Amino acid sequence: MEQDRINQLVDIINRSSYEYYVLDSPTITDQEYDDYFRELLKLEEKFPMYKRQDSPTNRVGGQAIDKFNKVVHQRPMLSFDDIFNEEEVVEFDERVRKLVPNPEYTLEPKMDGLSGSLIYEKGVLVRGATRGDGIVGEDITFNVKTIKSVPLHLTQDIDIEVRGEIYMSFDSFEKSNQERERNGETPFANPRNAAAGSVRQLDSKITAKRNLDFMAYFLPNPEDYGIKTQEESLKFLRKLGFVTNKNLNQVVSTTNEIMMYIDDLGAKREKLPFAIDGVVIKVNDLSDEEKLGFTSRVPRWGIAYKFPAEEVLTTLLDIKFTVGRTGKITPNALFHPVHVAGSLVSKATLHNEDYCKQKDIRIGDIICIRKAGDVIPEVVGVKENRRTSSLSPFEMIRFCPMCGEELVKKEAHHYCMNEHCPARKIESLIHFVSRDAMYIEGFGERIVEDLYNMNYIKKVSDFYDLKKYKEELKELEGYGEKSIQNLLDGIEASKQNSLERLIFALGIRYIGKKTAKILAKKYKTMDNLLSTTYEDLISIDDIGEIMADSIMNFIQNSCNLDLITELKEYGVQMLYKGMDTKNNSYIENKTFVLTGSLEKFSREEASRIIEENGGKTSSSVTSKTGVVVVGSHPGSKYKKALELGIEIWTEDDFLEKVKKNT
Ligand code: IVH
Fold first, then answer.
1. Is the pTM of this model over 0.70?
2. 634-656 pLDDT, tens per residue?
3. CA distances for 321 relative to 349, 398, 402, 420, 544, angstroms
4. Cα–Cα nearest to 654, from 603, 582, 619
5. Best of 217, 265, 632 to mutate for ligand 1, by most ligand atoms within 8 A of CB?
6. Is 513 known to be catalytic?
7. Spatial distance between the Cα atoms of 180 and 174, rounded to a whole number of angstroms
């Protein structure tokens, strides 16, 4: 009885979601929907054994989880190459025409969210996953179930994988940010970040509140359903209960039509309820798709046209000068905050005096801002015709804004040469703890600056004595007992870092990450490096006169030697722990198979690393294979590994495991 009613309610509610989201024509009122929903919730509470996997009550979220499980995609989730102008559209079309004489293309908005994969078994949603690195994603099933435009039960009871974009509409984005501001939280920078952050919540109740959406656009196995074109895929997806961009997707056959579509969609862009960042062009006929195939990384049968970076006008309020670790002075534009490419920005670098003079940039000017690579804001130029009053031309400062020392100009940049300048000291401390250097987790710019100003840390060796201020640190705003302990633990752990991190962290002029590694590998210990000669240094490939001079200057300076002695006394290790010194329990005694195109290292390199760490490589996958490392476009070895349930690593997994050299 109750079970029948539960079944009936699940079906009514799921069907009405379909009518609402896909058909855009609801047949029941919101009130009726709410009543059915409440009745179902009550019944399920009383009779949990009858709760169905596809119950719409899953949409409110469930128990929080500890971590996301990794899932290996049944077929890699690839993306397209990006193009930016008409010329590249024509080139793409020419490339296609070489293999397919009269292609038809589907044109679709390029949704600006994150791609997701949904797996249905017998019509019921059983798994949702993020793209991850394309081979391995994260299991976000609980979170995906909260997305109302994701059908929990398809209109047909089939097994199928569906891919599309998880995104946040502008409307939900505004609402989420209003709420975040009310709660004193930092607003999301743009809808894409908001969607990505929301879908990766361990507590699906939070995801449910964020009101995400899903736009379906791709079937990895269309042939299994007798589908012959991308257009048919989209129709089929709609029939199954997915939302597609029905009114915006289009089929065309010439580059002229493609450009018209791009212009048209570009003009509509601002009025759409969701963010898009371009147009996806796909060959429509799936047999043509097969003929075109893939390059080593991406499909040849499609491409993503990206809209030009959005440019926005604003007023330049001030130019503030900052001092870097090397004493370099950088002018920065502070402007009236504006939304650019989805996020609110208020400052951008102006690089140096010449840059400011070339652009004739003046405080009070109307300036044009854009985001380079959609991430870093830059000043494109000044609207001189909108300069209303006589604004003063840019003038470079002559003295350090922090310590007052007279600046010295070297090539394009000005420098504060005072080694005791507090700004330089703080920047050096920030560099020491940064990710590529000693990587002491939890230390951001703000806390380092605070610790410097409170006189707890004046030089890098002071980090290792910070524990003596443990009680005082607990008084710091925003830090509790636990976070202070984490900071101190991070400091302790960093003592075990390999030598190259320390060399880089010391901030020797011209010595970047790569050179630090070369030095560590060559000298093995800090003492060896300290007793080197100019001739020895210059004999190393990749080390030229400037670097050798800089290293010699560093090691001949008694303050630096004292500092290194102090670090040693605190127990900081100064040994190279590279591959040739230790075996690795993740690799040792295992047989590895490499498949697909590897981008981060060559096969030879990978094989060498495996061997150095006590593993073996083999060319075929068998039940004895320990791990298969998968690059892009893996072939039958990847399939076989899936079938045999063999551990699969991406290139990143491999690098991570190599780093975790235990
Ligand atoms: S098709 C092989 N269609 O943009 C790629 N992708 O490079 C199959 N995207 O990572 C994906 N809108 O996340 C496809 N209508 C659309 C899309 C779309 C946005 C994303 C997708 C992919 C990237 C394309």
1. no
2. 878 888 888 888 888 988 888 88
3. 10, 11, 9, 18, 32
4. 603
5. 217
6. no
7. 10
